[in-house]
Specification:
single chain; alpha+beta; Cytochrome p450; five-stranded mixed β-sheet; three-stranded antiparallel β-sheet; 17 helices; 12 strands; disordered N terminus
Length: 419
C-alpha cells in the first residue's frame, strides 16, 4: 500500500468510484480565495466528500463529515515540520527556526506528543483566571482605538486587529509591549507557510523572522528565571523544568501561544468589523441589544471563519460520507464550507446575528478543539464592544482587499472613517 507521501505527490490515480470535483478546486491558485464561498457552494452541491484530482486529496465540505473527521482519532494532521525539513534538506537551505516553531505547533501533532504539549498548554492557561485578563483586554483596546477618535480614520488591520491579540497575549505571558510589537511585526502573515507550494523565499523569510522571535523569548525566559512570578512565562518555566525542557524548547512552546492566540483572533476581528459596517441592519441589532455580543460573535465566526481549511490524512481505511477512504489518503477539511452547509444553517450565505449559530466549527472539534476558545471569545467581545463605542464609522472607499491564503483569508488592510 502506498504511503501518504506517495499519495500527496500524485503517484496514485483517483480512487475507484470516487465522486470528483470537476477540477473546481486548485490548491495552488490563491486568487479564488478572495471570495471562495461560491466555489464552496458548488462543491457542496456535488457532495459532502468528493475527490480533487488537482489536490490529490478528498475535499470534505459537509458539516457532519468535517465534524466527524475532526473527531476521528484515526484521521491525523500532516506533520508540516517534517515536510518543511525535507524541503530544506533537498534544497540545502537550512530552516532551523521555522522547523523549531512548527514542531511546537499542536495543530500538526497527534498521539503522545500532542497530548503532552496540550497538557502543558492547558496548565499554563489555567494558571490564572481568564476573567483576570479582561481588564487588560479593555486597556489594550482602549489604547489602540484612542487615536481614531481624533483622527477620524484608521486602518483596522494594522492599527488595531493585528496588535490587540499580541499585546493581550503579552500581558498574559508577561512579555513587555516593546518585545511584543517586535514579534507582532515578525509573525504577521506567518500562516502563508502552510500553503501548498509556498516558495522557498517565503520559508526563508519566516525562518529569519521567527529566529528573531525565538531570540526575544529566550532572553525573556532567562531574565524571568531568577524571579518567577504568576505570569504565563513563569508557569511555562516551572512546567518545562519539571519535564526537562531547555530554554530553546520553552521559547518555541511560548511562540506557539503567540501564534495560536494572535493570527486567528486578528483575522476574525478585522473581518468582523468589515462585516458589521457592510451590514448596517445587523449592526443595528447589536447596538440596540436585540442580539447579545455572544450571539453576534458566533454568527460572525460561522459566516467568516478565521481558519478556512485544515489538511488531514487517514491512518487506516475508513468510510466518510459514503466514500471509501484508504489509508494514506489526504483530506482537506473545509471548515468555512462546513459552516455554510445549508443542511445545518438556513440561508447560510446571509449574515444573521440573531440566528442560532453555535453549531459552527470555527474552533474545530475533537482532540484538536481550540484550547483558547474562551480566551478568543472574551477578546472578540471586548474588541467589538470598544469598536461600538467609537463615533459612527463607515468603510472608506479605498480598500486593500484580501491577502489570499488557503488556510486563512486575511485582510491586507481595512480602512474606516468617521461618517
Amino acid at each position: 500500500m502506498m504511503d501518504r507521501n506517495q499519495r500527496s505527490q500524485g503517484l496514485d490515480p483517483a480512487p475507484d468510484n470516487a465522486v470528483e470535483d470537476g477540477q473546481l478546486f486548485d490548491p495552488y491558485d490563491m486568487h479564488w480565495m478572495t471570495d471562495p464561498y461560491p466555489v464552496y457552494a458548488q462543491l457542496q452541491r456535488i457532495g459532502p466528500v468528493i475527490w480533487s484530482s488537482r489536490a490529490k486529496a478528498w475535499l470534505v465540505t459537509g458539516h457532519a463529515q468535517v465534524r466527524e473527521a475532526l473527531r476521528d482519532k484515526s484521521i491525523w494532521p500532516n506533520d508540516l515540520a517534517e515536510f518543511i525539513q525535507a524541503l530544506s534538506d533537498r534544497a540545502n537551505k537550512p530552516l532551523p527556526h521555522l522547523v523549531s516553531a512548527l514542531k511546537s505547533i499542536l495543530f500538526f501533532q497527534h498521539g503522545a506528543g500532542h497530548a503532552e504539549g496540550r497538557r502543558m498548554l492547558v496548565q499554563v492557561i489555567n494558571g490564572r483566571s481568564l476573567d483576570d485578563l479582561v481588564p487588560d483586554m479593555h486597556a489594550v483596546a482602549q489604547d489602540l482605538l484612542g487615536p481614531v477618535r481624533n483622527a477620524g480614520r484608521m486602518d483596522v488591520v494594522h492599527e488595531f486587529s493585528d496588535l490587540m491579540p499580541h499585546l493581550v497575549m503579552g500581558r498574559w505571558l508577561g512579555v513587555g509591549a516593546e518585545d511584543v510589537r517586535l514579534m507582532a511585526r515578525s509573525i504577521t502573515g506567518f500562516m502563508v507557510v502552510f500553503n501548498r507550494g509556498c516558495p522557498m523565499r517565503e520559508l526563508e523569510h519566516y525562518n529569519e523572522r521567527l529566529g528573531v522571535c525565538l531570540k526575544v523569548l529566550e532572553r525573556v525566559i532567562q531574565e524571568r528565571r531568577p524571579t518567577l512570578t504568576d505570569d504565563g512565562i513563569s508557569r511555562l518555566i516551572q512546567l518545562g523544568d519539571a519535564d526537562g525542557l531547555d530554554d530553546a524548547e520553552l521559547a518555541a512552546r511560548c511562540l506557539f501561544q503567540f501564534l495560536a492566540g494572535s493570527e486567528t483572533s486578528a483575522t476574525f476581528t478585522a473581518h468582523a468589523v468589515r462585516l458589521l459596517l457592510s451590514h448596517p441592519e445587523e449592526l443595528a441589532k447589536l447596538r440596540s441589544g436585540q442580539v447579545t455580543m455572544a450571539q453576534a460573535v458566533d454568527e460572525l465566526l460561522r459566516f467568516e471563519s478565521p481558519v478556512q481549511q485544515t489538511v488531514r490524512y487517514a491512518s487506516e481505511d475508513r468510510v466518510l460520507g459514503d466514500q471509501q477512504i484508504r489509508a494514506g489518503d489526504q483530506m482537506i477539511l473545509m471548515i468555512s464550507a462546513a459552516n455554510r452547509d445549508p443542511r445545518v444553517f438556513a440561508a447560510p450565505e446571509r449574515l444573521q446575528l440573531d440566528r442560532e449559530a453555535g453549531a459552527h466549527l470555527a474552533f474545530a472539534a475533537g482532540t484538536h478543539h481550540c484550547i483558547g476558545e474562551r480566551l478568543a471569545r472574551l477578546e472578540a467581545g471586548v474588541a467589538l464592544a470598544h469598536f461600538l463605542e467609537l463615533p459612527e464609522m463607515q468603510l472608506a472607499a479605498d480598500q486593500p482587499g484580501c491577502w489570499s491564503a488557503h488556510v486563512m483569508r486575511r485582510l491586507k488592510g481595512l480602512n474606516i472613517e468617521r461618517v
